[in-house]
Amino acid sequence: MNIFAVIILATLAIDFVLNLVADYYNLRSLDEGLPGEFSDVYDEQTYEQSQAYTKERTKFGILTSVFNLALLLVFWFAGGFNWLDEIVRSWQLGVIWTGLAYIGLLILAKSILSLPFSIYSTFVIEEKYGFNKTTPGTFVLDLLKGLALGVVLGGPLLAGILAFFTFIDQYAWLYAWGAVTAFTLFVQFVAPTWIMPIFNDFEPLEEGDLRRKIRSYADKVNFAMEGVYVMDGSKRSSKSNAFFTGFGKNKRIALYDTLIDNHTEDELVAVLAHEIGHYKKKHIIKNMGISILQTGIMFFLLSVFLNSQGLYDAFYMEQMSVYAGLIFFGMLYAPIDMIVSVFMQVLSRKYEFEADAFASTTYRSEPMISALKKLSKDNLSNLTPHPFYVFLNYSHPPVLQRIKAIRTGDSYN
């Protein structure tokens, strides 16, 4: 076992243990009493249900993590990566097609083995707590659509990356970085109009009091309202949400139909004001910039380690290749990815506080607070998560912290 194997195994172990400890403390922090702030929204039965949901999702998540880790280790130390490499090389497809076949088969096998967990999550746990609205037909169709998108969009991008690192000796990482950046910007631009409608229907919000209130607010904050759409989220789940996506003329705000059904007009305007806050504070552009920078660093480091014989020896590979190197470097890069992920979670929570403050100051605070309370109830959110679990996993601050910040006028807590 060489230094590369030690680093990767240590990272896998640390990540697993950290998340296991976070899960343990998060379960212990479940409060037996309903926080007073939510007494006007929750009843005791619903609160007990939210705690039971958190427990079941957490235990299922641990089981899934154990399975994934065990699967990786067994495949690794049984020589599975080299075994698959010998098979695809025997097909004599050419270097790029061989790489696509190798990586594609790994992704396909992982997806198939994970399918029972996805089915159980959707049709047992989510069904048990009244969330699931997905039919077996929709579930299968989503899988096929996702596979098709992966082939159509991901295939050419992966082929380009393989070609850069195979045929260009110097500065291949710069070409790959440029290609991925261009691809990311392209997807961000076309996703609202070309990709997302493949999975959901988006209908313009119909004329009426709600649309007039939204238009009035948008004019007030000088937001060019290209589109506010209602998404048929109820097609798959009864959970509620709203999001901002795209940029330029293709930017749009989407409100789940379940959100509209369960909230007042003032609450909906407050939620929309929060999403506009993300745009006004340039959170989306900032995140994209950080992501592009991170991608550049990753590709540079890849160019450094891609030809290291030890990286391939760690996985018992008899021959070096760019496509296998991509897989192995991804695992070697995991420590950096863990640190960046935690940083991005901290930054994301800061952005949520800022968007809440924007909505509260440019509209009103009480509708924002009542909307947050209803959302937590509708989604059976954990109202008392442990701080360590929040630190590792939450992209949004706990709802009690958000409400406190809104009441005190803080934009960051």
UniProtKB/TrEMBL annotation:
<feature type="transmembrane region" description="Helical">
    <location>
        <begin position="60"/>
        <end position="79"/>
    </location>
</feature>
<feature type="binding site">
    <location>
        <position position="352"/>
    </location>
    <ligand>
        <name>Zn(2+)</name>
    </ligand>
</feature>
<keyword id="KW-0256">Endoplasmic reticulum</keyword>
<dbReference type="InterPro" id="IPR032456">
    <property type="entry name" value="Peptidase_M48_N"/>
</dbReference>
<dbReference type="GO" id="GO:0046872">
    <property type="term" value="F:metal ion binding"/>
</dbReference>
<keyword id="KW-0645">Protease</keyword>
<feature type="binding site">
    <location>
        <position position="274"/>
    </location>
    <ligand>
        <name>Zn(2+)</name>
    </ligand>
</feature>
<dbReference type="GO" id="GO:0004222">
    <property type="term" value="F:metalloendopeptidase activity"/>
</dbReference>
<dbReference type="GO" id="GO:0071586">
    <property type="term" value="P:CAAX-box protein processing"/>
</dbReference>
<keyword id="KW-0472">Membrane</keyword>
<comment type="similarity">
    <text>Belongs to the peptidase M48 family.</text>
</comment>
<feature type="transmembrane region" description="Helical">
    <location>
        <begin position="146"/>
        <end position="168"/>
    </location>
</feature>
<feature type="binding site">
    <location>
        <position position="278"/>
    </location>
    <ligand>
        <name>Zn(2+)</name>
    </ligand>
</feature>
<keyword id="KW-0378">Hydrolase</keyword>
<dbReference type="InterPro" id="IPR001915">
    <property type="entry name" value="Peptidase_M48"/>
</dbReference>
<keyword id="KW-1133">Transmembrane helix</keyword>
<feature type="transmembrane region" description="Helical">
    <location>
        <begin position="320"/>
        <end position="343"/>
    </location>
</feature>
<keyword id="KW-0482">Metalloprotease</keyword>
<keyword id="KW-0862">Zinc</keyword>
<keyword id="KW-0479">Metal-binding</keyword>
<feature type="domain" description="Peptidase M48">
    <location>
        <begin position="204"/>
        <end position="407"/>
    </location>
</feature>
<feature type="transmembrane region" description="Helical">
    <location>
        <begin position="288"/>
        <end position="308"/>
    </location>
</feature>
<feature type="domain" description="CAAX prenyl protease 1 N-terminal">
    <location>
        <begin position="26"/>
        <end position="200"/>
    </location>
</feature>
<feature type="transmembrane region" description="Helical">
    <location>
        <begin position="99"/>
        <end position="125"/>
    </location>
</feature>
<dbReference type="InterPro" id="IPR027057">
    <property type="entry name" value="CAXX_Prtase_1"/>
</dbReference>
<feature type="active site" description="Proton donor">
    <location>
        <position position="356"/>
    </location>
</feature>
<protein>
    <submittedName>
        <fullName>STE24 endopeptidase</fullName>
    </submittedName>
</protein>
<dbReference type="Pfam" id="PF01435">
    <property type="entry name" value="Peptidase_M48"/>
</dbReference>
<keyword id="KW-0812">Transmembrane</keyword>
<feature type="transmembrane region" description="Helical">
    <location>
        <begin position="6"/>
        <end position="25"/>
    </location>
</feature>
<dbReference type="Pfam" id="PF16491">
    <property type="entry name" value="Peptidase_M48_N"/>
</dbReference>
<feature type="active site">
    <location>
        <position position="275"/>
    </location>
</feature>
<feature type="transmembrane region" description="Helical">
    <location>
        <begin position="174"/>
        <end position="195"/>
    </location>
</feature>
